[in-house]
Structures are given as structure tokens and as C-alpha cells.
Design a protein that fits this description.
The chain has helices at residues 2-11, 31-42, 55-63, 132-142, 145-150, 181-197; strands at residues 16-21, 68-75, 80-87, 90-95, 99-103, 108-109, 121-124, 151-156, 162-166, 172-176, 204-208, 216-219. By secondary structure, it is of the alpha/beta class. Helix 2 (31-42) packs across helix 3. Residues 1-10 have low confidence and may be disordered. The strands form 2 sheets. Strands 6-5-4-7-8-9-10-11-12 form a 9-stranded mixed β-sheet. A 3-stranded mixed β-sheet has the order 1-3-2.
Length: 220
């Protein structure tokens, strides 16, 4: 009886395809694109017997898409095929000789025609093979409320030293290398708070964080 029931189940045809995106509402990849990926790798999925579908192949096809962090595909007893998609999350956008996102794991993520993320812009000498330093800076910004609110741009010089641009002020923040980054950012916060109180934020063209216990400012 079980063998007969199992055989009947395998012969059931795919009657419906459902695609779910986990987490955020903003879609960098569309339902239509996911459907096309499924079809490209298995032909027309609908009305296929369940037993002829290679779910591992479908998952591999989805996971190979550079917008997708992870994907799971499964089929219900009733013949519904479900794809659960987790998108990559961008934390910075590179704008140099080529344009792309850096995702939350420090990897490459292409730009999307469907949605543009509001993340800091990365400029300067940056390539897909040279993301380690800007990723560390972008991570720090993502995890710090002050930086997340104020930083609009990360610039990487030829020697991999970092400078920042902040919202609504004219000066450049020179971070240098990322050694002692926490202390440097704490110094920046202390300077910003005092300069805001004294109403002198716009008196400077450069704020240098390279020195151990002080912030060195260049006047405009």
C-alpha cells in the first residue's frame, strides 16, 4: 500500500510555483527573474511529474545568481513547488571604473535595475579584488549609529588609506589606515559633538584622525 501511494505521489505533476523572499521588502531580484532561472534549468516546471525534477539543480541555479545569498526549493505533497529566497544585503556601493555593491559578507553584488540601496558610496582605487579595507570600513559604518547617520562616502587612496565624507558638512575626514579604528571613531564623535555645540563645524576643510589622542583640523 505504501509503495503504491509513494508511486502515485511521485507521478503527481507540478501544479503551482510559489516564490517567497525572506526579510526585507525591497527586492533587488524580481519574482520574474527567479521564475526564469527555474525554467532555464529544468524547462517548463509546471505540469512536470515531481519525480523528474532535480531540486538540487534548481537550488544550485538560484544560488549561482549574484543577487541571491541562499535559496531553498521544495515540492509539497500536492504538487506545489516553492522557492524560498534570501537576498544579499548591500552595505556600500562602489563607484569607480566599474559600479557594484559590496554585500554584508564583503563580496561582490551587482547593481539592480529593480531597486537602489541607500548605502555609502565608495570611490577611489577600488576593484572587486581589493575590497578588504573598504569592507572593514563599511562594516564599521553599518554597525555604528553615528556613522550610519552621517557618512555618505568612503574614499580609498592608492595606498589603501581611507577618508570619509559626512552629510551636511564640507570637510574631509582622514582616517588613514584602519588600525585603532574604534579609538579614531570615538575621537571623531567627540570632535563632532563639541564642534556642533560651538557652531564651528563648517570652519574646517579637513579633520585628521591619524594621531593617537587628538583630532587635527585644517581650517577652510
Amino acid at each position: 500500500m505504501f509503495a503504491f501511494s509513494n508511486e502515485k505521489n511521485n507521478e503527481r505533476k507540478i501544479t503551482n510555483i510559489e516564490i517567497f523572499f525572506e526579510g526585507e521588502d525591497n527586492l533587488f531580484i524580481t519574482h520574474e527573474t527567479v521564475s526564469k532561472l527555474l525554467i532555464q534549468n529544468q524547462g517548463t516546471v509546471k505540469n512536470k511529474p515531481k519525480e523528474t525534477l532535480d531540486l538540487n539543480l534548481l537550488e544550485s541555479a538560484l544560488n549561482s545568481n549574484p543577487m541571491i545569498k541562499s535559496a531553498q526549493v521544495f515540492v509539497s505533497v500536492d504538487g506545489d513547488l516553492t522557492a524560498e529566497i534570501k537576498q544579499k544585503k548591500p552595505i556600500a556601493r562602489v563607484r569607480s571604473s566599474e559600479s557594484f555593491y559590496i554585500d554584508e559578507e564583503g563580496g561582490y553584488m551587482p547593481l539592480s535595475t529593480n531597486y537602489t540601496a541607500r548605502v555609502p558610496i565608495v570611490t577611489g582605487k577600488v576593484t572587486k579584488d581589493n575590497l578588504k579595507t573598504v569592507f572593514k570600513m563599511a562594516q564599521k559604518i553599518t554597525n555604528d549609529d553615528f556613522l550610519l547617520k552621517h557618512v555618505t562616502q568612503i574614499h580609498q587612496n592608492d595606498d589603501n588609506r581611507i577618508s570619509l565624507r559626512l552629510r551636511q558638512v564640507g570637510f574631509e575626514v582622514f582616517v588613514g589606515d584602519l588600525n585603532n579604528l574604534d579609538r579614531k571613531i570615538n575621537n571623531l564623535k567627540a570632535f563632532y559633538k563639541k564642534a556642533t555645540k560651538d557652531k564651528i563645524l563648517n570652519n574646517y576643510s579637513k579633520v585628521n584622525l591619524q594621531f593617537d589622542s587628538q583630532v587635527v583640523c585644517t581650517k577652510s
